[in-house]
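Write out structure tokens for Arginine--tRNA ligase.
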Amino acid sequence: MKAVKATIAKALQPVTGLDEDTLIQMLEYPPNPELGDLALPCFKLAKTLRKNPAEIAQTLAEALVQTPAVAAAEPAGGFLNISLARLPFANEIVNVGAVDTHALFSSDRNKGHKAAVDYSSPNIAKPFGVGHLRSTIIGESIVRLMREDGYEVVGINHLGDWGTQFGKTIAAYLKWGDEATVRADPVRELFKLYVRFHEEAERDPALEDEGRYWFKQLEDGNEQAVSLWQWFIDESLKAFKQTYALLNVSFDHYLGESFYNDKMDAVVEELIAAKLLVEDAGAEVVDLSAYDMPPCIIKKSDGTSIYATRDLAAAAYRHDKLGADTLIYVVGGEQRLHFQQLFKVLELMGKPYANRAQHVSFGMMKFNGARLSTRRGHVVYLEDVLAKAIDEAQKIIEEKNPNLANKDAVATSVGVGAVVFNDLKTYRIHDVDFRYEDVLNFDGETGPYVQYTHARACSVLRKSNEGEETMRLDMNALGGDDEGANALNDSEWALVLQLAQANEALNRAVDEYDPSVMARYTLQLCHAFNRFYHHNPILQSESVQRTRRLAMTLATRNVLARALYLIGMDAPNEM
């Protein structure tokens, strides 16, 4: 809708005195399509134009009479209801959707900007549980959405590969571990040892000292400690990458916390030079009391570094070495204070990228109402969830379409898609209570429903036995008349309007860092296409209508496939 809104705004600008961007923002969609395609509330204009809203609406209606894109402009109380000229608008939208979906979605607003997106970031030697799902798939979708919007994006997996937990895992392995058992299933067995360490430490607190001892050995480069630590990393990454492959998730860099070990001294020196570092109870901190925040600890009283030190070093590396001017952190909401402190310290250091750093928080993942905790062993393995979803999809395919080609590949796409869509259709800031019966529900507003709609459009196009290059909407062939025999009916027009809103969905999803906007858009587009499909014969229509409806089907298939890609899902051609 971006182009037609701009056209309307340009026509109204001289009358209202408002700039075109403001007018575009004021245009909204009426609650009832019978009122029109767009509406402009005139109440805000009453003060500046010194007229009542009804009079303003009448004046603006007269100003739009000569605008070819507008079929009708009707005052209604304090609103101006606008109906678009259907055929020329549909001609443009459908034909662009048929050949260039990027142009329909994007105006490349952020071309020239480079973003570093930090997401997923699981802990080494701990399982990839459903609790990691949100950061992983929200982050992957944000990467894709930002690229569509023109950004050059670097995806970074900031692995949790450093800290006292590794001293504990090393100590647990040396006390109770068996090499053959661990090698058979490294991540799960190491996780069992980690949980056992905490259980035993509750009875024998001296174990905590052993954990600290082995982490100090690791920091000091002890050969045994470093060798075990590297083994834990290698085996964990093998398991993680299998899960990422199932989720269609990829990263440009795997840069764990340990990567910044030799980069933190420079940060400390810079803070000292800027006179930002002060002593507080033996620790070195940046005092943030003037900003109603607790101090940001840079070095603990024992001289060891902390998360903030590494994140400051990571921010500098991402800007100075990777060239990113925008820093995005897809991390749970419980880390909100940490990032507020981090960004404030970057600002006090005079970093130019401080005001382009963004914490993209999200709600907590629960399992059947209970909070997940790796320390207590309360974890649900994501690989198990995905396997169960794929198995469920296979059963449904065997029941409904046993002769389907590539059944295993389709089942994987549908099963994984069910899990992904179940999460992404929810506003990211909300908590998600993970329940198998919801994730694996293949009815209603689900991933399988959206994927099936795409497959339905593919089926229509296959059965047409026509080349896609011939499927174009030709306004001249339709007579160019919204009132003629070949005029678009309401279900066709509703589909065109949904296709036209692809750009607004992308812009809002990027601006809000929220893939749920795009997920909800796919549902709206599917609803519009399925109404169109049920209300209009396509292949059995007479020639002109058949070509038009095939063009609409092609545009829908292309736009839906692109929207699914942007939220990290496959678009099967058959189901």
